[in-house]
Design brief:
About 50% of the residues lie in helices and about 15% in strands. By secondary structure, the chain is of the alpha+beta class. The strands form 2 sheets. A two-stranded antiparallel ribbon has the order 1-2. The chain has a two-stranded antiparallel ribbon with strand order 3-4.
């Protein structure tokens, strides 16, 4: 792997994991008792991007269970669709920025090889 862009490649992998976590949250947003997760990118060793995934245990809203004859309450998912879509936009932009750096690096190397070659 080419050293100057290793951190960008690890960032692409990290943003992919973040998107997968967010997509899972959205997919389960209507599941009773589902607890969302959050993926946070941080700087790891050797300028690599590290992803930490944590479960968010805040309670979801309580609603009356329509299937219960006793009026029991049930907890809904704590996933906020607006928050997830906002996160996905930021994740997409981070992914695009790192992909652009890799593309520019490859184009520069190609130009140098053409000049030498």
């Amino acid at each position: 792997m080419i050293a100057p862009i290793q951190s960008n490649i690890s960032a692409l992998q990290a943003f992919s994991k973040q998107m997968a976590v967010s997509a899972n949250n959205v997919a389960n947003a209507l599941s009773d008792d589902f607890k969302k997760s959050r993926a946070i990118n941080t700087e790891g060793e050797n300028d690599q991007v590290k992803v930490t995934i944590t479960k968010i245990d805040t309670p979801g809203p309580l609603v009356e269970d329509p299937l219960s004859k006793t009026g029991e309450l049930k907890e809904l998912s704590n996933t906020d669709i607006v928050e997830e879509l906002t996160n996905q936009i930021m994740i997409e932009q981070g992914f695009k920025a790192n992909a652009k750096v890799i593309k520019t690096y490859e184009e520069t190397i190609g130009s140098l090889i053409d000049m030498i070659g």
